[in-house]
Amino acid sequence: MRGLGRSARSAAxxxxxxxxxxxxAALRAMAAEIxxxxxxxxxxxxxxxxxxxxxxxxxxxxxRLTLDAKAVGQMAxxxxxxxxxxxxxxxxxxxxxxxxGIEVGRMRVPLGVIGIIYESRPNVTADAxxxxxxxxxACILRGGSEALRSNQAIAACVRAGLKSAGLPETAxxxxxxxxxxxxxxxxxxTEYVDIIVPRGGKDLIERLARESKIPMIKHLDGVCHVxxxxxxxxxxxxxxxxxxxxxxxxxxxxxxxxxxxxxxAEKFLPLIGYIxxxxxxxxxxxxxxRKLVKDVKPATEKxxxxxxxxPVVSIKVVKDIDEAxxxxxxxxxxxxxxxxxxxxxxxxxxxxxxxxxxxxxxxSTRFADGYEYGLGAEIGISTDKLHARGPVGxxxxxxxxxxxxxxxxxxxx
Amino acid sequence: MRGLGRSARSAAxxxxxxxxxxxxAALRAMAAEIxxxxxxxxxxxxxxxxxxxxxxxxxxxxxRLTLDAKAVGQMAxxxxxxxxxxxxxxxxxxxxxxxxGIEVGRMRVPLGVIGIIYESRPNVTADAxxxxxxxxxACILRGGSEALRSNQAIAACVRAGLKSAGLPETAxxxxxxxxxxxxxxxxxxTEYVDIIVPRGGKDLIERLARESKIPMIKHLDGVCHVxxxxxxxxxxxxxxxxxxxxxxxxxxxxxxxxxxxxxxAEKFLPLIGYIxxxxxxxxxxxxxxRKLVKDVKPATEKxxxxxxxxPVVSIKVVKDIDEAxxxxxxxxxxxxxxxxxxxxxxxxxxxxxxxxxxxxxxxSTRFADGYEYGLGAEIGISTDKLHARGPVGxxxxxxxxxxxxxxxxxxxx
Lengths: 413, 413
Fold this sequence. Notes:
homodimer; alpha/beta; Aldehyde Dehydrogenase, Chain A, domain 2
């Protein structure tokens, strides 16, 4: 691992110098290699899938692991999409002349070396490599041991692409061992790795966060709330509460707890309850909810802390926006929370006071996503406060340094 | 300590809501209290100073500890200066409408709770409290045990100021014990503290960085370089190399190693050597330097890693900009480095490729400072890459979250 670290550090210096054209040429060449070697990739993946099935992995796991021709095509297209994204590196912003005569600005520069730790989806190998490369970073990728052959096959395409563009092949390195100790080393090599991006289940990320000596871009939970204010348009409230819960159940920006102001509960809850019931969403609510909607199980304290990732929703009737925000502060995960209201001053309070990485007014929580926000692509979502918060795109994989343009100025006081 | 943590967390929620007027009123009231109680503060400080002298502390230490009427006045004026700084909290930037109809932007919000750990200078108590407050953060301040009485007296003024503006007095809490275990708790209470800012010597900061579970804004070393390119104007080169080394010896942005292109060494080195000698700056150089300048001691490998913080300078003749940048990458501390050159393409390469928190062209390293950069004030300088890099002002004490302004939009794909 330390050998990989050293190579990555040295590749990072070359990448920091690389121009946009070279990086884009590499991305295009990687995509072309992936298309050309499609059969090879599918073959390598088939061996991984066979082994996973033999090991008794469940259907969802095998689904995530499987690469078919369509998935391979999407992987290549994903790399080509990154070509179109603006290169953040080298841009100088906020340049201003100071009274002393110097001009001071901030230049966007790569972070350096990024370690990515992920589980069974092999497409992350190409996606993450592409994003890191475009932002001028070297990366060390450590995928799940079950996807080892698939990831190595994809890595060969990535290396070929880098080589054809004259960039160091060590700019993207895929850890070739299933040895778990490799992860332990990766997250503690502070001299070689600048940031770790873990992708996977909460258990994995919690363990990594405990042991890592390197800062992480991560989120653990997405316990997302929609608060229906008593000044909400009921039709809009129903539309958003429906979409936020039922459009997809397994995503981190899915609604998990619905908070309803008591002033609108009688009008709103029977409507949304009817929809949830028809979509087979299990409801768990407090007393007030259960009085207004049939088939609602009593909610426990624990339910309100739970990220269901399933057709289950917790519901609570609250007095007003203050109780709603207090609930979110206590039970939420600082991921994504929304208010539905026609009252601008309440919307402004919610925006300002709810301490989450994404806060929405009159829109579905499902929008909290790098593509929907216009970042082009995302490496992950961060619920931490430092550096990058919310969906993290190319910019989140860079940092800014101060640059000073002088004309011989010296300091005299 | 956990009690302080809980109070700080709850105060932070109130502060996040506080308007600019209330925060400014508190800052003005703190300054007024400090002026009113000037005699009291000096009295409390006198006891600290007496104890430090009795404990055999050296003159420099006692200097840093001592508060006289002028220092008290400066502390009050510093708080009033913060009133004039723009409040970063609540500003929405980059607001853009997406094809789906939602408007996505980023809102600047406080970090939450900031822990400040510092050594003997009691004025940090007021400065840090003021900056944290203006950025909407609660803070827990832990000063040196030698300044305990002074810090408590200043804290009383700060609390009175907060109270008179209707803000929670627990927004600024000064740890009242000299017990070292308190620091250990402060840097590991991840649920109550969002960021730690250590101010002090390298030993203190290294120890804290090793033990902290909370991210830090910090720098360890300032091994700053000036590279004199062979296309430099010799007169400008001498002026900058002189100022960067001799304007102040003890600051972190002082020049420690002078790198000189061989093409200009013969012309430049005797001139700067003459100046340094006249200012009693001890020179340590490589063979090439020693051939051109008298009274230069041989430099050891270790000298090039050393932050002198004294009238000592390391000098090395290098072949060109590439060797200079390689030297900086190996021996530097990613703090502040400068090039003197009339060649724009070399200046651009230096700006882009030198991986330091401040990179300057044709200006003295001494400019790397929050005031000189126009930040108004600084809480510290960061050489880390994440979050804030370089001098850290109000903006570095905040973070950005995504805000979405919708009109009932839901996600359909």
